[in-house]
Amino acid sequence: MALTTYGASGVSPRTNVYAEAQMLMHTLPTVILEKTGKPYRMPKNKTAVVKFRRPVVFTAATTPLVEGVTPTSTAFTYEDVTATLGQYGMVVEITDKIEDLHEDPVLNDAAEQAGENIGRTQEALNYAVTKAGTSVYYANGALRTAVNTAISLNKQRAVVRALKGQKAKKIRTMLSSSPNYATKAVEAAFIGVCHTDCEADIRGLPGFTPVSQYGQVKPICAEEFGTVEDVRYLCSPDLDPFADAGGAKGSMVSTTGTSADVYPILYFGQEAWAHVALRGQGAISPTIIPPGQKTKDDPLGQRGVIGWKMWHTAVILNDLWMSRLEVAVTDLG
């Protein structure tokens, strides 16, 4: 385990340099994916497996009844989608020398960063699940390895037409920013979520309306930047592309300068996927033990600990109510 010591790289005091009291701004996680999924909090002291159940839809009864004859009964059934909670966490250790002699509030800053990493971890876990859906479209070609074209209105329309054809409902409620998993009503739309690099190409689509021109319609969150027909777009710098996974880069963004980077734009209908957290006290369990607290494992109180742990899982509930459009991004340089 890595122990943060007084002279550790990046932590050691700055000799002959005045430390400005106002700390430099740091990178905050952008958490937007959970807003598009169905939130569910699992009770404590239950199994680690959560099961979502939905009735199997009846087909239309198009055969005429025969006079005086009772029709054959139809069975009513459910289908299940299961997910297993996993436990995640991190620990940061610092020494008493840092606490006693260091010019910066290392313990407080480390605790703040650890807390923010909870959201960053949840977003990464949700992204890994949602970008792996089976409904996929390509800006050009039939495989990811061919993609070297930006998003087009026709491709968005193809995705939306498929969602509507599968009876996907537009999102009308989503998770609010409150800490108690409350939901809020939003204007009905399909939601598109993408990396911030995609924003310029989406703004160039015919009919794009920026948030500033919404009028009475309120944006879903600070990361929403506009709408195109039935889709409202949110962007985040944390939704990384598939580097160098596409075709010849041409005028597209590329990590190495050879093949285009491929960006997944995720489109969601209502209840296409869900994220699950353990409910109740201790759902997210923080730990802050400042240096100086003496235990049998640390009899002189030389070490302090900052950490957290949580239970979390994400699961696709209906692959056909969400889609992934893989695109390249125009190089603006």
What is the multimeric organization of the chains shown?
single chain
Unreliably modeled segments: 11-25
Helix content: 10-25%
Strand count: 16
Structure description:
The protein contains 4 helices and 16 strands. It has 333 residues and is α+β, with helices and mostly antiparallel strands. The chain has a domain at 136-272 and 316-327. The longest helix has 25 residues, at 106-130. The two termini are 42 Å apart. The model is unreliable at 11-25 (pLDDT under 50).
Topology:
Blueprint: E1 3-4, E2 38-42, E3 49-55, E4 78-84, E5 86-95, H1 96-101, H2 106-130, E6 136-138, H3 153-165, E7 171-175, E8 183-195, H4 199-203, E9 209-210, E10 224-228, E11 231-236, E12 263-268, E13 273-278, E14 284-289, E15 303-316, E16 322-327
Give keywords:
31% strand; eight-stranded mixed sheet; alpha+beta; six-stranded mixed sheet; 16 strands; 333 residues; 4 helices
